[in-house]
Amino acid sequence: MKGEPMTLYAYTHLGKKVFSRIEYPDMTPISLDSLYRDNDPIYYLYQLPPGKSRGSFSLNHPKEMLIEEENLHLLQSCSGSFDLPDALAEKMASGQVKGVNTQYPKWQTHLNAVTPKRWRVNLLALGDVGGTLLLGLKLLGGGLIDHIGVYDRNPENLLRWEMEMNQVCHPFNHELPPIIVKEATDLFDGDLFVFCASKGVPPVGSDIKDVRMIQFEENAKILSTYAKMARDNSYTGLFAVVSDPVDHLCYAAFKSSNLNASQEWDYQGLFPEQIKGYGLGVMHARAVYHSQKQPHLQHYQKFGRAFGPHGEGLVIADSIKNYNQSHSLFLTQAAIQSNLAIRELGYKPYMAPALSSGAISLIRTMSHQWHYSANFIGGAYMGSNNRQRPSGIQLERLDLPLPLFARLSETYEKLRNFNER
User: Fold this and answer.
1) Based on the domain organization, do 261 and 212 belong to the same domain?
2) Pairwise CA distance, residues 73 & 83, whole Å
3) Is 21 exposed, middle or buried (0-12, 13-18, 19+ CB in 10 A)?
4) In terms of Cα–Cα distance, which of 412, 337, 406, 332 is closest to 376?
5) Domain identity same for 96 and 31
6) Are residues 105 and 152 in the same domain?
7) pLDDT at 104 over 60
8) Rounded distance, CA 356 to CA 10, Å?
């Protein structure tokens, strides 16, 4: 790959092959071509400010090595050519290169991270969303999930779900994952923790337009306890937030986990990329639902995308290839109002979120498939299409039309401003 020159240094560190544009004098130098002599994963070391950048990511294009500030441009396509060996560029494209930010105190843990072959999942709270999500994981998780640990403050409800779900199986085989009752203190003995606890949900019939934001303060208090627990247990798995408001609670989890006893940031807790928010999947599904009812919008199912939060600030793009602002705004509003439409019928709208945002998206996360979730981008959790590769999170990069990027920027700034309150 010929183009812009790039000076790189290669080393071995803790038994791993690493390289960087920065010199690390305490590491053992090796030749650059030794990085790609085999199929082993390699690590690109870089330095960006903690709290404003990720701790790691899947490095898939040489241009990603030049990032000086993480912001919404992480969702835009990479372009340009660089003076790198083709074998190294191919290793990046195949997902065998992990970017690691050495400004985080615990950065070296990324060098020994292992992707589970069978996931140990732990689920907190078995209310309407949690119970439905559990059912989805049970039915979809065969061969992928080792077991699902569950905890709920109501012991009768907890035992009810354990009994019911362990009485679900295929005839003549038991491939579906077993459900195991756990204590709260054991929820971080696993690979994926799913937070479904919720408090303060307004009753059906209440005159509240954005139900999700009413829940923030109460849910953030509950979440803080478990984010600190993850820190205390040196948890290395994924911390999935399903409770509303998903995107804001993700940042609350990051903050609670990384404040010390003096309430100062020390970044000894969860890495920002360990926390993922699961609320956007159902907004995409709702946009699909409404596009199916409009012949001139059915292209959304193939060419459209969803971005942003689960609720106000959502951005639906009717097409990435041929973006239409009015069509996109229509689908955006239709998706947002779907939540209220169910409540107006007298029901809580929890089944589609629990399955589309929750179970299906979590299964696709664990199996390294593209899915919708919120991930850390420059100080905010922004929903988009992405996949969880063994080398880290890969955000989908697109050629974003200017009107669409303007909408995304407005949402992104609101999310960042909320976190800086």
Assistant:
1) yes
2) 23
3) middle
4) 412
5) yes
6) no
7) yes
8) 43
Strand positions, DSSP E, 185-283:
192-195, 238-241, 275-277
367 Cβ neighbours under 8 A, 6+ residues apart: 144
Structure tokens at 383: 């929903």
* 138 touches 144 (CB < 8 A): no
Q: Would you give the DSSP letter of residue 420? A: T
Q: Which amino acid is at 382?
A: M
Containing domain of residue 384, as a range?
Answer: 280-419
Per residue in 139-189, pLDDT tens?
Answer: 999 999 999 999 999 999 999 999 999 999 999 888 999 999 999 999 999
Check whether residue 40 and residue 107 sit in a common domain: yes
Instruction: Note whether 99 and 172 are within 8 A (CB).
Output: no
Tell me if 24 is assigned to some domain. Answer: yes
At 140-150, the pLDDT tens digits run: 999 999 999 99
CB 371 within 8 A of CB 393: no
Q: What is the pTM of this model?
A: 0.95
pLDDT in tens, 218-259: 999 999 999 999 999 999 999 999 999 999 999 999 999 999
